[in-house]
Amino acid sequence: MSDAVKPTEYDEIPYPCGGQEQTHPANLATLAALFGLTPPELSTCRVLELGCGDGSNLIPMAMALPQATFVGIDLSIRQLAMGQKEVQQLGIQNLSLRHQNILDFGEGEQPFDYIIGHGIYSWVPAPVRKKILEICSRLLTKNGIAYLSYNTYPGWHLRAPIRDMMRFHTQQITDPKRRVAQALAMVNFVATAVPPQMQIYRRNVEAELLRLTELPADYVIHDDLGEINQPFYFHEFITAATEHGLQFLSEARFHSMQDNRLSPEARNTLRKSGDLLVIEQYRDFITANAFRQTLLCHADQALDRRLRPETMEQFLISSTVRSKSPNPDITGDTEEQFHANSVTLSVAEPIAKAALVILQEHTPKALPFNTLFTMSLRRSNTEAAANFDLGFRLHQRRELCDLLLAGLGAGILKLQLFQAAFCLQPSDRPKLGEFARLRILERKEVTTPLLDNIRFDEPFGRQLALLCDGNRTRQQLIQEMTQRVENGEFPSELPEGPKPEPESLRRTIAGRVAECLDRIARYAVFVDNG
């Protein structure tokens, strides 16, 4: 039986598939534009994903960009069948999920604008890795972008001993669940048995145990216990890419290329080298990086790495930022703190504070720069002055650009050239998107249009979401959910003690429905019902 039809370990134990927002062509295009390239047009682009699994990452892309073309290949018959079924159920015409070996891919294929390979490069044999780079070199359009993720040294030098001990201890165990349990038990045993004088080793084992226990079992089976798991130094990966006519563009997450975690002395020392590739490798040495998500483009593309604040004006901006104060002062010069992703930003300029508050109110919706600028002028009470004084208006515009550049580097703001459509404030007849409805019914975990992965584990919220078909009004939703609670369907929604009066229960459920609808809307799974 050939490799093209032979069942794989992913057929026996499917890999936990889902969306990977950093792989979206919109993100790749944004980073290309940030560094001076003209990326392929998103609305009509061609996208290839190598190792697509069940298509969870591609389906939302294809639905958001109906004039674009998407192709995904994988060796897992089982996972592909799941994805193909969903593609058929949703009536998606611009996505093809194929059962195909990477080694056989390429003959007769049209070029692709964006090529994605997430979680595959380090987990396949050397000939397949070479083929992946050949595909990127030969099938990437002139200004196309490739994304490849891989494990890296030196971080994996710290993880490798734990992987080795788990594989040694479980080499005779075939049952997947038992194998994972025994692997974790082995690491736990070592962590507790390390002699007191070996504290550095103990801390490393304990850190790995914590990481592994937070991962799903099927992830551990494939990533940490899999037969192939080959990390690379960054410079080794770049050398291989260069041999195929490709060059380093950036990391998929811009803030990972910044030195915010380093001391001023370390930052100055790194910058003295003047060589971006050397700086990237040395940063890995300092931070013990264990994973990279690297973007590549053709070597003949001229990059401009001078990041100018005014460059921010071409993008849409979004953020999960939150203000520390419930009522931040956005008209005065009081310094306010905003935080996101364990990063805190202190801001005093009124227009900058206003912009962050507006982004907070609109999350996860991305706003065009000019829209954000106009709204921020109004909220900071500087609109009249900006309209009267051109110099002041340009100063305010520069202040906002400076904020966006700083927030991008800190990882608390996101720039985009495109965002999938969704409804942040659903109408009186809320409507759940078709893919979200399908996933809630079959898996409970939804891959959103923004490629986030949300689990609908709460029975009340899950059932409410399914009722949002665009036909029921909010009052009808309240009435139906109240009736279901009265019928005992959601016992946790009833207060302890005597059963509440009907009107009191209705008010309680009305509050719960409003809270759930607002939360579900923030997942970006409601669509316009106009």
Let me know the largest β-sheet.
7 strands, mixed
Q: Percent range for helical residues?
A: 40-55%
Q: What are the segments in which pLDDT stays under 50 over at least 5 consecutive residues?
A: none
Mean pLDDT: 92
Rg calculated over all Cα atoms: 25 Å
Strand fraction: 5-15%
Separation of the first and last Cα atoms: 53 Å
Number of helices: 20
Short structural summary:
By secondary structure, the protein is of the alpha/beta class. Helices cover 45% and strands 15% of the residues.
Written overview of the protein:
The strands form five sheets. The chain has a seven-stranded mixed sheet, sandwiched between helices. A three-stranded antiparallel sheet has the order 12-8-13. A three-stranded antiparallel sheet has the order 9-10-11, covered by helices on one side. With 530 residues, the chain is α/β, with parallel strands linked by helices. The relative contact order is 0.10. The protein has helices at residues 9-12, 25-34, 58-64, 77-90, 126-139, 155-169, 176-193, 199-213, 217-223, 234-242, 264-272, 276-287, 350-362, 369-379, 383-388, 390-410, 434-442, 459-467, 474-486, 502-521; strands spanning 46-50, 69-74, 95-99, 112-117, 140-151, 246-251, 291-298, 316-318, 322-323, 336-340, 343-347, 367-368, 414-416, 431-432, 445-447, 453-455, 526-527. The model has no long low-confidence stretch (mean pLDDT 92). Helix 13 (350-362) crosses helix 14.
